[in-house]
Specification:
heterotetramer, A: alpha/beta, five-stranded mixed beta sheet, 5 strands, disordered C terminus, B: 5 strands, about 30% helix, globular, binds adenosine-5'-diphosphate
């Protein structure tokens, strides 16, 4: 697993790659928490999963845990670059219903920022 | 012997081995002319069952043994994941979607296994261990075109 | 327990499983930060040893069991490939480069294992079986740059 | 494993891909023998191994068996697209010394045809 983190406005973009399972869960959780701690003005989370080849419920648990943190302050979560293995897990868990999907990071940033400033998406 | 092929894996209950188990069972299954999506499902089911044995069965202790047995019948894969850990007191409840004894977890492991595989059977004795047996019928993909595949 | 991780594979003596063994051991080894070339060597050695058990040990009979044990010590991988087949009457001769009891084969299996691994030890009892134990020290590649690798 | 066979002049070009081991040895041997039987004027063998990810002594045995057949009639063997895993096995076995290596199939064909007609390479 590799993680690349970038703050864009009030969005934290996490570009994940590789296999997201129990073996990397602690590491991923720590990196995301650190980024949220370091950037208190971040409100929304964007996961770019284009290069994620595998995601299981342990990995999804880390993602949803971070969503819980930001959602208490009205933050939203979006996914870009969804591939079949990840899409399936998001659908089975119902996460598609509580998150947004966009083709590109830019689209995600624009939409979340607008939604956050104006009316809900 | 009625099965066409057999693979048994035994490994330590450490998180590093979740991926090893996934890759090994996927390589074993690839003998059948299966689709990428079927392989993804099988990897997912193995990952959930092995993670459960590590986290719940052995409470994260790294020196225990997990055993996976994979059998290929004509067109069906049977996978058994076994631990000799804590066991499950109430299997029915444990298998309910969203139920977890660990507040940090989602309680979706069994639910994913059931979505990914055709059948999931759980046997467990508290204090003795847990055995999860899953089957999946493999249909050859009509999209696969393996003119010279051996 | 002195090793860091352990994987045991047991499988039927069919050619389909040569690749399964290779992939499984490679996935297990990947826990160490090894190079692609080291992985290629390990795959090669596993392939030769398992093929020997299938062809020579079990004379191509598909219903026998081959066992591989892989142990990770600090920076060393130890692989044992075991069969309970015909055994080798003269191990020294068998290990000579170019020597084969099968005219269709090259007699390079042991020679490749020795090139790929740091050490190769063969124990065999005619009529009882053969055990090949190989070790390889894994040096992390200084070229690998895993800033965020878990 | 996949095999693509093409006859070019007096050269049989075999484009191999995947893993060449015991599991595919019989299949590969049969396909090469068939092609040699069907094309009696073929004299040289060219293996394009660009997409071969693995080769062991069982696979090499099949290749050398076919070389034996053509070499009794003065045929030569060449490799193109050599990647590390295959190159290593060819070197360890000494096959590099009894074969030719070229960057492209065209180069291989031209050289083997010339060598076959004129002086040995
Ligand atoms: N191998 C096991 N050993 C002991 N308990 C288990 C095992 N597998 C599952 N369980 C129990 O079943 C519950 C539900 O499992 P699961 O659906 O996979 O969700 P989760 O792993 O997120 O808790 C677990 O919380 C645990 O209490
Ligand atoms: N597992 C085994 N069981 C019985 N005999 C074996 C085994 N491995 C190797 N041998 C013997 O050792 C010889 C040399 O083996 P090797 O160097 O791998 O070459 P090859 O497989 O091409 O014959 C074989 O021909 C066989 O007689």
């Amino acid at each position: 697993m590799q993680v690349e983190l970038e703050v864009n406005g009030r969005c934290l973009i996490a570009r994940l790659s590789g296999e997201i399972d129990l073996n990397v869960a602690d590491n991923l959780r720590a990196q995301l928490e650190q980024a949220l701690n370091d950037n208190p003005n971040v409100r929304h989370l964007i996961f770019n999963t284009r290069n994620v080849s595998f995601l299981d419920s342990s990995g999804l648990g880390v993602i949803l845990g971070r969503y819980k943190r930001i959602s208490t302050h009205g933050g939203k979560m979006a996914f870009t670059g969804l591939q079949d293995p990840v899409r399936k897990v998001l659908e089975l868990s119902g996460v598609t219903k509580l998150s947004y999907q966009f083709s590109t990071e830019e689209e995600a940033v624009t939409n979340l920022e607008q939604g956050g400033m104006g009316s809900e998406l | 012997m009625n099965y066409k092929n057999l693979l048994r894996l035994e490994f330590l209950s450490v998180p590093e081995n979740v991926g090893v188990a996934r890759v090994s069972i996927a390589a074993f299954t690839s003998q059948l002319d299966c689709t990428v999506s079927q392989l993804d499902d099988i990897k997912g089911a193995v990952s959930e069952a092995v993670s459960n044995s590590i986290i719940h069965g052995y409470k994260g202790e790294p020196h225990h043994i997990i055993t996976i047995t994979a059998k290929l019948w004509d067109d069906t894969l049977e996978i058994t994941v076994e631990d000799t850990g804590t066991g499950i007191p109430d299997i029915k409840r444990a298998m309910q979607s969203g139920y977890s004894t660990n507040p940090e977890r989602l309680g979706l492991g069994f639910s994913f296994m059931r979505s990914f595989m055709d059948s999931v059977r759980v046997e467990s004795i508290p204090g003795k261990g847990t055995t999860v047996t899953m089957t999946k019928k493999i249909f050859a993909s009509s999209l696969n075109n393996h003119a010279y595949e051996s």
